[in-house]
Amino acid sequence: MRGVAGSQRAPHEAYLKPIVLAGAVLLALAAGWTDLRSRRIPNWLTVPALLIGIVANTVVSGLSGLKASLLGAGLGLALLLPFVLLRSLGAGDWKLAGALGAFTGPARLIDLLLGSIAVAGVMAVALVIYKRRTRQTIRNIGHILISLVTFRLPGTQVSLDNPDSLKVPYGVALAFTVVLYGIFWTSGIAL
């Protein structure tokens, strides 16, 4: 199996154990449901899940499982922290990524995060079209691009703090991606 950048995956990631994948899928389903229903992913779900992912990988794969689990959790938290600090991603989504990383390890987590970005993009386009907010969305993209070029934070009109902004529940996108991955994996479709 090849990694994201085409490099050989570490031996502990050559085979994802079914029980560990089942834990990731169950976590994703619960988080996606709560995010869809209340637009929150609670700590009572993500924090114990992170610990369960670490323990499950350690029990199933020993020291290499522990290492993969800690790397996956750390990577998920590190990659998404800037988005939380910029207020473009909620803390529950951030903790969900860390907990999923504890179950899947770093290489699979990157695959899942990239897939979830695509799913969230499709959800965002559908939401913009449904709410008829194309012009405002184009203006917001302009604000973001200007802030990137000028190395300044974008205004409040493009943050989660703006009550008028359209918000895609990223936990739902990540959950959908994990469940889809689980279906492909159990069907034997190479990912």
- Which structural class matches the secondary elements? mainly alpha
Number of strands: 0
How far do the termini sit from each other?
A: 8 Å
Low-pLDDT stretches: 1-14
| Mean pLDDT across every amino acid position | 84
Helix-strand topology string: HHHHHH
Helix content: over 70%
Radius of gyration: 17 Å
Total helical segments? 6
Quick summary:
The protein has helices spanning 18-38, 43-85, 91-104, 106-131, 134-150, 170-187. The protein is an all-alpha fold and 191 residues long. The protein has a domain at 13-119 and 169-187.
Please outline the helices and strands.
Layout: H1 18-38, H2 43-85, H3 91-104, H4 106-131, H5 134-150, H6 170-187
Notes on the protein architecture:
Mean pLDDT is 84; it is low at 1-14. With 191 residues, the chain is mainly alpha-helical. The longest helix has 43 residues, at 43-85. The chain has a domain at 13-119 and 169-187. It has helices spanning 18-38, 43-85, 91-104, 106-131, 134-150, 170-187. The N and C termini lie close together (8 Å).
Question: Could you list some keywords that capture this structure?
Answer:
191 residues, mainly alpha, 6 helices, 73% helix, elongated
